[in-house]
Write a structure and sequence with these properties.
It is a single chain. By secondary structure, this protein is an alpha/beta fold. The chain has one domain: Alpha-Beta Barrel (TIM Barrel), CATH 3.20.20.80. It is about 40% helix and about 15% strand. Helix 9 packs parallel to helix 10. The protein is globular, with a radius of gyration of 21 Å. The protein binds 6-O-phosphono-beta-D-galactopyranose. 6-O-phosphono-beta-D-galactopyranose binds next to loops.
Amino acid sequence: MQYTFPEGFWWGSASSAAQSEGAANVGGKAPTIWDHWFETEPHRFHGQVGPANTSTFYERYREDIALMEQIGHNSFRTSISWARLLPDGHTVNQEAVDFYNKVIDELLAKGIKPFIGLFHFDMPMYWQEQGGWESRETVAAFAKYAELCFKLFGDRVACWMTFNEPVVVVEGGYLYDFHYPNQMDFKRAAQVAYHMMLAHSLAVKCYRALSLPGQIGIVLNLTPSYPRSSHPADLKASFIADLFFNRAFLDPAVKGVYPQELIDILREHDQMPVVQSGDGELLAAGKIDLLGINYYQPRRVKARMTAINPGTPFLPDWFFENYEMPGRKMNPYRGWEIYERGIYDILINLRDNYGNIPSYISENGMGVEGEHRFIGEDGQVKDDYRIDFIRGHLQWIHTAIAEGSNCRGYHLWTFIDNWSWMNAYKNRYGFISLDLDSQKRTVKKSGEWFADVSRNNGF
Ligand code: BGP
């Protein structure tokens, strides 16, 4: 069967500043929470490799953008480093302005639409020390930073993304200990989540006031929540997991309001964040033009069977347990489930319950541990598994579009194998492999395949 995508479909990949630029303390950049955390607890990072050790996009952006063109990209997402642009929190770093101008101009020169994120987990240490997302001051600071970016680069950026996966900042930093500042406290987590959505809304409001030519959105990792069975207790478990991990961000971003059911649960358990008068109008102003969807794997849940010990602090997990569904297909090289149809379910949910908001797949990808095992005699990674993975997801996207979904593009995570938070270089995801020592880039088999897909607008 021939799968042809709508004209103008965005083909590309995504990366982020902290994961690709390197130059951690070069060019006037100040430390982020990642630089700080690595300095204080390097053993928590795979292979003790920290954020200074990347694919050095800061120096090699030209070479990389040429490779993007070679493998058929017509669009690419990366992010701006807040700590590079405003190192002391307030003064603009001209070297950073020059760098991002060069990146954006180079992308445009190669016919690649720039999608630019403003926050991809990389809180500047300067703001973290003042409370980070727990502090309302950070909301205003973020909006100022966003406005500066819009004014500097907004004449050329096709689409802005305020945040990448805000729920991961909340889970990692304030619930489950995999991001700095490693707190485990639901009430603080709720405040952080709320402040990020206010910051998002304020940034959208600033963007609208400038009447620039592009669009603005947010990137959410939408994780469809599938119940073990149709028993009411399992259905309730999946409904609540969906509320906490998807709708707590999706509803304010698309509809401008929080789901009432979420507010009810938080009130009942005395976990409401501090809200100020006027916040409702601000959230209503944060409605997006375009939704970026990151999809890796679904969440399978069942009703909680084991009682929570009295005195256990409040967590979303009070309401459900993960369900290891027998027979589910797993990625043998990363331990995550592969469920291609999940991407269709997300798109159809957006069509039916979110006004068919324009969207695109901003990340989808297959992490592979020990990928050097698949290097052929010619030095190329023969990642047929990744081609199958991408093709499987694209088929479901195609079906969703045929059924009326407003999905406009597909970006793989990621362009070139990059540094990934605590996992560092453990899981490789790129279209292009990276030799960390020599910095040599080699297009993988999937990269060559993708070039054809993009040129044919399908497969
Ligand atoms: C997403 C993030 C990316 C990247 C990816 C892969 O959640 O947006 O920044 O980290 O996950 O993650 P990992 O390397 O942990 O498999």
